[in-house]
UniProtKB/TrEMBL annotation:
It comes from the Bacteria. One of its GO terms (biological process) is glucose metabolic process. Residues 188-479 form the Glucose-6-phosphate dehydrogenase C-terminal domain. This is Glucose-6-phosphate 1-dehydrogenase. Its EC number is 1.1.1.49. GO terms for molecular function: glucose-6-phosphate dehydrogenase activity; NADP binding. PANTHER family: GLUCOSE-6-PHOSPHATE 1-DEHYDROGENASE, GLUCOSE-6-PHOSPHATE 1-DEHYDROGENASE G6PD. Pfam families: G6PD_C, G6PD_N. NADP(+) binds at residues 16-23, 50, 147. The lineage of its organism: Bacteria, Pseudomonadati, Pseudomonadota, Alphaproteobacteria, Rhodobacterales. Keywords: Carbohydrate metabolism, Glucose metabolism, NADP, Oxidoreductase. InterPro entries: G6P_DH, G6P_DH_AS, G6P_DH_C, G6P_DH_NAD-bd, NAD(P)-bd_dom_sf.
Amino acid sequence: VSRVIPVETFDLVIFGGTGDLARRKILPGLFRRFLAGQMPESSRIIGAARSELDADGYRKMIADAVAEFGGEESSNTKALQTFLERLDYVAIDAKGDGGWADLAKLVRPDVIQAFYFSVAPSLFGDLAERLHTNGIATEHSRIVVEKPFGRDLASAHALNATLAEHFDEKQIYRIDHYLGKETVQNLMAIRFGNVLFEPLWNNHYVDHIQITVSETVGVTGRGAYYDRSGAMRDMVQNHLMQLLCLIAMEPPGEFEADAVRDEKLKVIRALQPIDNHHIVRGQYDAGPDSQSYREDVENPRSFTESFIAMRCHIANWRWAGVPFYLRTGKKMKARSSEIAVVFKDLGHTIFEGDEARHRNILSIRLQPNEGIDLQVTIKEPGPGGMRLIDVPLDMTFADALGDDAEEVPDAYERLIMDVIRGNQTLFMRGDEVEAAWRWTDPLIEGWEARNDVPKLYEPGSAGPEDAMMLLHRDGRKWRDIK
Ligand code: NAD
């Protein structure tokens, strides 16, 4: 029995359809959904970008992209051929009139229409406007916008206002691909589908929470963009804060887009201001055979952070007194994303001589090996007496699902199909994005005004020493990055 949920016929227009994101993620993902049977026969994908290509030229480009980035599935050449037949292309100028009449002829008004804005945010307004002046968009069309969504509250607010001139909030899908991960949805299933966890999910039982997103890559390739944003804008304001919201939110009344997003918004609004003492900014240094951050971005005086660690507090009854430690960085020792809920120590132990600190830790891994495990304490097997050890109760899907695990769609695939289905649950609402900037803006303004110099850290490490101290001072320790 197939577990794939069918979708209705759609026309998906990808503005920026020749770009890096489209070739690396969007189209290979769509091909996988096609293979899974989620693309009704009459559906079309229309690339729209500046390059002067015809439909065949575009099909050739996408065939190459799928071969390069599509994984094993790309060897299915017969299916790929059928998929390519559903592609079309228009050369279009977001800022001019060229190509719009051709696009209007291609997009059908009576099927689901989705317009993916995989272009620089400075073009969002032009695209939104021209979709209307050329009579292409209808009140049922959906638009998908990529990050970055602004670089502060003012720019995000302006972007929201521009989109709102042309589209209703119900039509706007702001992508944060972290929310498309299987594990993120599973986090909600674990919390709200079991009786075991939710009663413990508060300051009576939780000691603290850690969220780590570490990358091994530096900024090469997009240095100019990155140097103007930094880890706080590029990672914390969106991805880490979204994860924090899902962990910390109150149970929504139903699993419905606005019910979930209302609860996330309340978390962001309850975040307390942080003082500098609880923020550590870092910048990677040169390594034995790698360049420093400043060399990578070609800015010898850059004060931008490629690493940040911080301690946050949520001012509400559930979380009063529970620190949330966030950290993210580039050129770290491993590529890993994890949320760890560290429960409190036992109040009293009955096991004489057991000096170790046994703790229950619920670890939610987004990469690598998406999955969830719960560290529990058991008796060490064998005749050694009452010796206790900690073992993981592993809920990794690859093991639980066996061969079916391959069918689990990746984040982009899932999110695009949610757009077609009209389900906004895993997309950020405009007010959420603005609330997040409202919290990060004063912090960023603070260090910019002081010319705060980030601490250097060794490439391949876990970040600057001060980040370790942030937890040591509280008698705690970061989890290993592995
Ligand atoms: P890219 O530079 O590789 O591609 C840009 C695309 O926009 C091209 O197809 C180009 O033809 C088109 N374009 C540019 N000017 C145009 C105009 N005036 N009219 C019509 N089309 C025009 O960029 P990318 O890396 O694919 O990124 C696209 C968007 O996605 C950006 O906003 C970026 O910040 C965001 N994003 C990218 C990634 C990634 O991994 N590449 C990840 C997250 C977010």
